[in-house]
Amino acid sequence: MHRRRRHNNIICVTIRRRHYATKYIAKIISTSPTGRSVTAEVTPPQPIPSDTRGYPIPRRHVICKAANLLLQSRPSGSSISDFFSSLSPPLTPSEASEILKSLNCPRLAYNFFHFCPSFSPAFHHDAFTYNRLILVLSKSSLPDRFDLVRTLLDDMERSMTRGTISTVNILIGFFGCSNDLKRCIGLVKKWDLKMNCYTYKCLLQAHLRSRDVHEAFRVYGEMRAKGYKLDIFGYNMLLDALAKNEKVDQAYKVFEDMKRKHCEPDEYTYTIMIRMTGKIGKPDESLILFNEMITRDCNPNLIAYNTMIQALANGRMVDKKGSLAN
Question: Which one of 99, 202, 208, 211 is separated from 93 by 20 to 30 angstroms, measured CA to CA?
Fold first, then answer.
């Protein structure tokens, strides 16, 4: 754009350059006899190859170059901007996600995330880039990481970005026992999602970390009604919480569910049950559980032996201690 101004009979010309989001390389194939016009051939940029699901495959050289530029001790803002502006085709959300994964500085990842839309008018963050940044922040030690994640959720609502069940799983594991847990569950309904087995497991563990055994057992009953089951780690966590709160009937129910669901109890499972029965004054049941552990080829460790001896001592069955050595 040219602007002319007359001042003391002098014409001043100001030239403003327009920067394009995409750059093309042209090859001159002919010129006019006068040399005042040329004919150029422009090769359009090749589309980014996609995988079988239709998602664009990230360009590894772009990810490596971008990560190196961003991780420099004092990166130049113009050099970073020039690099991303020169990409043809422009940066994709999947590539932005991989760059976020490559950055070992959570604050830098957060700033880069908000800088991405300035590279191209067509760039928009999707659920995958949001998931990646939330995961990066959840593993960080930033003092304001909870506020940053809440800000990201507000951004998703404003931009009408629909998350996935993975988003909910990450948020449940991150917020845990805080008041934000209700908001996480509300997103399932808002985004029209379906809770899977891993979602229930994350939710159950969040309630156990907050020492809300009643709510944890309610979640267990809900996932059980839908045909889901826990892994051995989840079962042991729930059993340990129920045993410590003297929920004996519920603990036995979970213990029997493990066997029906083909999740074989291990030495830690039996140790939890032996400790519980010993505390409530039932050493005979503790001994039955100990023998069952041996029968199922679970090798008792030192903790299991000490727990069994303590149960017998509490029940005044000292004469049975000798049988443990056999």
Answer: 202
Alpha helices per DSSP H over 191-297: 197-209, 213-225, 232-244, 248-260, 267-279, 283-295
Closest to 292 in 3D by CA, of 272, 308, 270: 270
Separation in Å, CA 32 to CA 26, 42, 229, 233: 17, 18, 77, 78
> How far is the C-alpha of 86 from the C-alpha of 276, rounded, in Å?
66
Question: In whole angstroms, what is the distance from residue 185 CA to residue 181 CA?
Answer: 7
Residue type, 301: N
- Whole-number Å distance between alpha carbons of 110 and 130: 10
- Per-residue pLDDT at 285 exceeds 80: yes
Beta carbons of 82 and 71 less than 8 angstroms apart: no
Per the structure block, which two tokens stand in for 308?
């069994």
pLDDT tens digit sequence for 151-210: 999 999 999 999 999 999 999 999 987 678 889 999 999 999 999 999 999 999 999 988
Residue 166 CB-half CA count within 13 A: 10
Place of tokens 């990560």: 67
Least confident window among 153-167, 236-250, 259-273: 259-273
In the block, residue with structure tokens 């309630």? 207
Residue 41, strand partner residues = 27
Token pair belonging to 5: 């101004």
4, amino acid identity: R
pLDDT band at 8 (very low <50, low <70, confident <90, very high): very low
Q: How far apart are CA 54 and CA 47, in angstroms?
A: 12
The long-range contacts involving 266-269, CB below 8 angstroms and separated by at least 24 positions, are 266/232, 266/236, 266/298, 267/293, 267/298, 267/299, 267/300, 267/301, 267/304, 268/236, 269/232, 269/235, 269/236, 269/239
Residues 312 and 287 sit within 8 Å (Cβ to Cβ): yes
Q: What single-letter DSSP state applies at residue 35?
A: S
Structure tokens that stand for 24 in this block = 């093309």
Q: Which of 72-81, 201-210, 249-258 has the lowest mean pLDDT?
A: 72-81
